[in-house]
Specification:
Elements (H helix, E strand, L loop, with lengths): L3 H9 L9 H14 L3 E7 L3 E8 L10 E3 L5 H7 L3 E3 L12 H5 L4 E8 L5 E9 L7 H51 L12 E7 L9 E10 L2 E9 L4 H17 L6 H14 L8 E10 L4 E8 L4 E4 L5 E4 L16 E6 L4 E5 L1 H4 L12 H9 L6 H15 L8 E7 L20
Antiparallel strand pairs: 1-2, 1-6, 2-3, 4-5, 5-6, 7-16, 8-9, 9-10, 10-11, 11-14, 12-13, 12-15, 15-16
Helix pairs in contact: 2-5, 6-7
Length: 438
């Protein structure tokens, strides 16, 4: 009866020192109704006592009084034998007549069946008691056995639910850890702080897909390629996970290492294509990219831009019109010759150059899957007016999230370069009249 494994199962059941519960009271009450006894118990026995998880017929004693010593309870015989105990006359039955509760509790007749833990250990008993000797008929005994199995079934169900809750908690913890790792890895592939070219506003925003638990392939960078030139790169690796992260890291650091040797954006992307092919990147993890090399002049920037299967960069002109910077080129990592071409651009005061990944235009509403689309993006950029670069990427990012109701299917990356508008000096809002000829 005092086997350590059994006692451990009793404690693991979570029934000791707990208050009454309807499910156990209902089963004990049903046993009382079926047998016509005066009292019914659902008990569990640890190493020292019999605790009454349910007691029907003795009022409603407090939890601390719902117990007696293990040796004083007839239930300990059920536990010891792991089998039923049927007593018709307790005073004359040699098995129980010397147990103190027979006299103290006025037991005349007693019948009980064991209840079990999911592992098979006997935990206690479902029993009924009468104050006078009596016979228990076969229907009553059979029903009592069935109700004892029902008590064991309830305990097993709780054990399963408890294990499931533990597993769910473990899964949530693992998911949280995976999300944290994914965020850390993704952030390591992006510049922690975007470099600010002198006299130019630069801002970027990255929005991970879903809950950010998977590393995807969007990346961007902005850095000095030489004392007089700057390089901006944005890319999107197909696929996800560690393999996509490897391609992203290779792309970003290849461009950083190579851009200082070239003044051509075409050449930068061609070298990146060569590196991807040399690394034998898997066919399902290809790269689209857009790269620009530019100089900062006295009033703005001029540069050259190349696109490799990536959405076109957009210029918002001072008059509010939006222009696509188109250039031909296939995605990288497929063919030795990606067919790259380039286009020149100029950015003057008040104008904006916007780079984005296809997660922007392909974001869709959950209800009808209507895309955010290029036209919507153009209108939004056209309406940005005098917003600075940070406010522009913030407004566009929030509009995309609102469109897809915060659940984007793909990562979203935005990067904006803006030449600040020239403001007239205070008191000089109007031109001075020309000096007359003399």
């Amino acid at each position: 009866m005092f086997d350590r494994v059994r006692v451990a199962a009793v404690h693991a059941s979570g029934l000791l020192d707990t208050g009454p519960e309807p499910v156990f009271d209902d089963l004990a009450g049903l046993a009382l109704t079926v047998t016509g006894a005066s009292t019914a118990f659902v008990t569990v026995l640890d190493e020292r006592r019999s605790f009454w998880k349910s007691v029907i017929g003795l009022g409603d004693p407090p939890v601390e009084e719902r117990q007696n010593a293990a040796e004083a309870s007839l239930c300990h015989l059920v536990v010891a034998a792991d089998g039923p105990l049927i007593v018709t006359d307790a005073a004359t039955d040699a098995r129980v007549c010397m147990i103190s509760s027979v006299t103290r509790m006025g037991i005349g007749a007693w019948a009980g069946y064991p209840i079990h833990a999911p592992g098979g250990q006997v935990l206690g008993a479902l029993c009924v008691v009468d104050s006078a000797p009596r016979e228990w008929n076969q229907a009553q005994i059979k029903t009592l056995a069935t109700l004892a199995r029902a008590v064991s079934g309830e305990i097993a169900l709780r054990d399963v639910l408890g294990r499931m809750e533990t597993q769910m908690a473990d899964l949530r913890a693992a998911s949280d850890a995976a999300a944290a790792l994914a965020r850390t890895l993704q952030e390591s592939l992006l510049p922690p702080v975007l470099t600010q070219p002198p006299g130019i506003q630069a801002a970027a925003r990255y929005l991970p897909a879903g809950q950010g638990v998977t590393v995807l392939g969007d990346f961007y960078d902005l850095f000095t390629a030489s004392p007089s030139r700057w390089c901006v790169i944005m890319g999107d690796v197909s696929g996800h996970g560690v393999e996509a992260a490897k391609v992203t890291a290779l792309a970003r650091y290849t461009v950083r290492a190579d851009a200082s040797h070239h003044i051509s954006s075409n050449r930068v992307l061609e070298q990146l294509n060569t590196a991807l092919l040399a690394q034998q990147v898997a066919s399902h993890q290809l790269l689209t990219a857009v790269c620009a090399i530019f100089r900062i002049d006295g009033v703005g920037i001029t540069g050259v831009l190349s696109t490799a299967g990536h959405p076109s960069a957009l210029i918002r002109h001072i008059d509010g019109t939006v222009q696509e910077l188109r250039s031909a080129g296939a995605m990288l990592g497929v063919f030795p010759d990606a067919g790259l071409t380039s286009t020149r651009f100029t950015l003057r005061p008040g104008e904006v150059l916007l780079f984005h990944t296809d997660g922007v235009t392909e974001a869709h509403r959950p209800t009808d899957r209507r895309l955010f689309g290029e036209e919507r993006l153009h209108r939004l950029l056209a309406g940005c007016g005098d917003l600075d670069a940070s406010a522009i990427v913030e407004r566009i990012g929030e509009a995309v999230l609102a469109h897809c109701e915060g659940d984007s299917a793909d990562d979203i990356a935005l990067l904006a370069l803006r030449v600040p508008a020239i403001r007239p000096a205070a008191g000089n809002s109007r031109s001075l009249p020309a000096r007359p000829n003399t």
